[in-house]
Every structure is written in structure tokens, then in C-alpha cells.
């Protein structure tokens, strides 16, 4: 009997063992979980370099009440979770999300409102929104090609989905975008592609699926893309030729008068194609979209390109192209009579649709030409310049700038915006500035 009326003393709380069952509950003889829960909150604070500022208690309705020091209005909230060990896992996830937002300068009350959509059981259907966006981009809007989706959109949206469906998802558009691009060098092309792709998707989600404004991307993406460090700068994929004479010599090296009949025919076709690229500043793929039209007012024929380059910001428009004939080193203008030969059916282009497209076809043929191989190596070693099929287009831009054509007119003929032209061809903007100041000086002299 003596033993039956003896009351067992509760064991002392165990500290530092990481378990949740650390406080004895005298009511039912079981261990409580509160001590371990509070340790988790302390570790959450210290992991952010802070002193323990979070505390929990039981509300009058048996829910978890969360407090944040310093005690200020809005820094005490009641969470919709029972004061129990069974509910603590989901409750802790919610607290962690709320705390992350509170550290950005919000009160607990504000942070709880911002993170409402992240509470367990209230997850959004992000995969469905990604699928809808894929249909929109490939079947409507600018109707981008599948290859563009696979390269520019799918990788970064796939990464975003993994983050958004994890146990600790980002809570705002900026958090998500930073997490998805942190592995890419600031200012790099791939970082820019990723930021823009995510911005389009999030804008679609806000507009079409009524997500709250915190999921709207920043109006300016410049800060997320970042500036490229001079020490890490990577130049554009292709550089212009040093002179028109290099292009003339390259064309003269093609075996149009030697070898088998098949070789001669192929050489002439590639010569014609390259002359068009050089004189018109074409992208290789635009050879497949080239036509000749007649001016209704003058009756003169002119070049017209129907190609529409699609991207995240829409597609370029078909355009009129103005030729810029090449000039040899001794000052002789190269008269190739391309438009007359085209209209007479004398220009026959090589196959440009095999493999990975026109640019790859051009590369395959010219990478077997000794003069081209030698010229590339020479330019790389002596001038640190990289020549590709796009070098003809870049040289067209340089040629126009040297001949005093204004930047806007060059951009129109090349088929892109003025902003894009200045971004990819910086010499154009610098030249326009120099010309403007030179003209101002000339006007000043004339007035005197």
C-alpha cells in the first residue's frame, strides 16, 4: 500500500539532447514537447546571427501564440495550430516563413498576412501555372519555337518549381528570382535570360491566376541581372573583321574555278550566300527569308527580309534592307550586282536547313577552307578577335557607322531596336556621340 500511494517525482528537463519530449507533463504522466520546440526557435534565431527573439506560449483557446522581441504593436500573433506536439511540425514551418518575412522589416502581423499562401495546406498549384504559361508562350503571345522554350524558359522555371514546392519555399518574387539566378555571374547573358524568363512567368501568374502583388516581379530587372565585373567580362560571341579586304580575300579564296564541277558549284553558291551576308548585314538564317520588292514610287527594286526573330519581348518585324557595298584596301568599291543577279535567277543558295540551321551549315563548309582557318587563327592570336558567320553582320554595322549613317537607320536596316543596336554594337553609340559633338564644333566655327 505504501508503494501505491507514493508519487513518482517528475524527472528534470533534459537539455541539449535535441528532442521535443523534454518537459514532463504532470497531468497525464507524459513528456511534453515545449522545451524542444523553444530550442528550435532559439536555433532559428541564432542561425540568422540574432539573439533569441522568438517565443511561444499557449493561447486561451489552446492555439500557438508567437511573440517577437522587442514587444511592439503587431509583434504578437495567434497561429491557427493546436498547442500540441502533433501540430508542431507544420506550425514550425509556418513560423519559419513568417520570421523570414519579418526580418525584412515587417511586424509579425504583417508577415503572417504576406505568408498566408505559404501555410501548410494552402499551397498554390505552381506546376499547373507553369503548364499554362508554356501553352501561352508557344501557342499564343509571340509563339516562340520549342527550342527557345527548352533553352530559355524550361530550365529556370523547372528550378523555380522545385523551390516553390519545397518545405521552405520563397515567399516573394524577388526571393524566388534571386534563388534561381544566384549560380550565374552577374551581368552574364544566361543570368539575363533567366531573370527575364522568370519575370514573364510571374507576371503571367499575377495577371492570369490572380496571385497577390508580392509575386509580381520588380518593374526594373536591372538590379536582379546585375552588372558584369570588368575582370569577368565576356565579349560577344563574334567580332567584326578588321577590314572589308579580309572578306574580299576570303571570297577570292573559294574554289569557284577549280576542282570538280560539284566543288565549283558549291563554292559559287557559298560565295553568293556570303556576299549577301556581307553586303546586307544578314543573320545566316535570313538568307532563307530574303526577297526582292519594287518601290511603288520610284520603281526601283529593293531587298526585303520576312524573318521575324522571336524572343521574350516579342518578335522583330519584316524589314527593308539597305545594301552597303564593300570597299577594298585600295579604295575600289565592290560591285557584285546581287539584286540584278537575284532577279535574273542567277543566285542559287546552298542548302541551309540541314542540322542546326543556316549558321551551322555555313560553319561546316567554311571550317574546311584553309584560308578561313588561317584567318581565324591570325585574328585570334594577333588581335584577340573571334570570327564567325556573324562577323559579316557586325562588320556591316561598323561599315555603316564609318560612313556616317545614323544609329537609328542602321538599327532599322539590321532589324532590331535602337536599344538593342547600341547594346550589341557599342561603337555605333560612341560614333554617334563623337559625330554630334564634331557637328556642333563645325557650327560654332561657321558662326564666327
Structure, briefly:
The protein is mostly helical and 448 residues long. It contains 18 helices and ten strands.
Low-pLDDT regions: 1-31, 118-122
- Kindly report the average pLDDT value: 82
Q: How many domains?
A: 3
Proportion of residues in β-strands:
5-15%
The beta-strand count equals 10
Treating each run of at least 4 consecutive H or I residues as one helix, how many helices?
Answer: 18
Helix-strand makeup class = mainly alpha
What are the secondary-structure elements, in order, as H or E?
Answer: HEEHEEEHHHHHHHHHEEEEEHHHHHHH
Give the CATH topology of the largest domain.
hpI Integrase, Chain A
Cross-sheet strand order for the largest sheet: 3-4-5
The helical percent reads 40-55%
Question: Assembly state here?
Answer: single chain
Spatial extent as radius of gyration: 33 Å
Distance between the terminal alpha carbons, to the nearest Å? 124 Å
- Which term fits the overall shape? elongated
For this structure, what is the CATH class of the largest domain?
Answer: Mainly Alpha
Question: The biggest beta sheet, please?
Answer: 3 strands, antiparallel
Can you tell me the CATH architecture of the largest domain? Answer: Orthogonal Bundle
Amino acid at each position: 500500500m505504501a508503494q501505491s500511494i507514493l508519487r513518482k517525482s517528475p524527472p528534470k528537463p533534459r537539455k541539449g539532447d535535441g528532442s521535443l519530449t523534454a518537459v514532463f507533463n504532470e497531468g497525464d504522466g507524459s513528456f511534453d514537447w515545449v522545451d524542444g520546440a523553444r530550442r528550435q526557435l532559439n536555433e532559428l534565431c541564432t542561425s540568422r546571427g540574432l539573439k533569441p527573439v522568438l517565443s511561444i506560449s499557449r493561447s486561451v483557446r489552446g492555439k500557438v501564440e508567437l511573440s517577437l522581441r522587442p514587444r511592439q504593436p503587431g509583434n504578437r500573433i495567434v497561429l491557427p495550430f493546436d498547442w500540441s506536439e502533433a501540430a508542431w511540425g507544420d506550425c514550425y514551418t509556418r513560423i519559419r516563413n513568417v520570421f523570414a518575412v519579418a526580418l525584412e522589416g515587417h511586424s509579425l502581423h504583417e508577415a503572417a498576412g504576406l505568408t498566408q499562401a505559404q501555410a501548410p495546406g494552402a499551397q498554390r498549384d505552381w506546376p499547373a501555372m507553369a503548364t499554362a504559361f508554356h501553352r501561352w508562350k508557344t501557342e499564343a503571345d509571340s509563339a516562340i519555337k520549342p527550342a527557345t522554350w527548352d533553352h530559355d524558359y524550361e530550365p529556370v522555371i523547372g528550378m523555380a518549381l522545385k523551390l516553390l514546392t519545397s518545405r521552405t519555399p520563397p515567399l516573394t518574387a524577388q526571393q524566388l528570382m534571386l534563388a534561381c539566378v544566384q549560380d550565374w555571374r552577374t551581368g552574364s547573358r544566361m543570368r539575363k535570360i533567366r531573370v527575364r524568363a522568370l519575370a514573364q512567368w510571374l507576371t503571367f501568374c499575377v495577371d492570369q491566376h490572380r496571385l497577390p502583388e508580392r509575386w509580381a516581379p520588380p518593374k526594373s530587372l536591372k538590379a536582379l541581372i546585375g552588372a558584369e565585373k570588368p575582370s569577368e567580362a565576356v565579349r560577344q560571341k563574334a567580332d567584326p573583321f578588321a577590314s572589308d579586304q579580309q572578306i574580299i580575300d576570303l571570297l577570292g579564296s573559294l574554289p569557284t574555278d577549280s576542282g570538280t564541277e560539284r566543288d565549283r558549284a558549291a563554292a559559287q553558291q557559298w560565295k553568293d550566300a556570303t556576299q549577301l551576308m556581307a553586303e546586307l548585314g544578314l543573320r545566316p538564317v535570313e538568307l532563307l527569308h530574303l526577297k526582292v520588292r519594287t518601290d511603288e514610287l520610284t520603281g526601283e527594286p529593293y531587298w526585303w527580309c520576312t524573318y521575324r526573330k522571336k524572343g521574350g519581348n516579342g518578335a522583330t518585324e519584316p524589314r527593308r534592307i539597305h545594301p552597303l557595298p564593300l570597299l577594298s584596301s585600295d579604295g575600289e568599291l565592290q560591285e557584285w550586282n546581287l539584286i540584278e543577279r537575284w532577279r535574273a535567277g542567277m543566285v542559287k543558295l546552298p542548302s541551309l536547313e540541314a542540322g542546326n540551321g543556316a549558321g551551322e551549315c555555313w560553319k561546316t563548309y567554311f571550317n574546311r577552307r584553309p584560308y578561313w582557318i588561317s584567318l581565324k587563327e591570325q585574328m585570334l592570336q594577333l588581335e584577340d578577335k573571334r570570327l564567325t558567320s556573324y562577323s559579316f553582320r557586325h562588320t556591316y554595322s561598323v561599315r555603316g557607322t564609318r560612313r556616317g549613317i545614323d544609329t537609328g537607320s542602321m538599327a532599322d536596316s539590321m532589324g532590331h531596336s535602337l536599344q538593342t543596336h547600341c547594346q550589341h554594337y557599342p561603337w555605333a553609340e560612341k560614333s554617334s556621340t563623337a559625330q554630334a559633338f564634331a557637328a556642333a564644333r563645325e557650327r560654332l566655327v561657321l558662326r564666327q
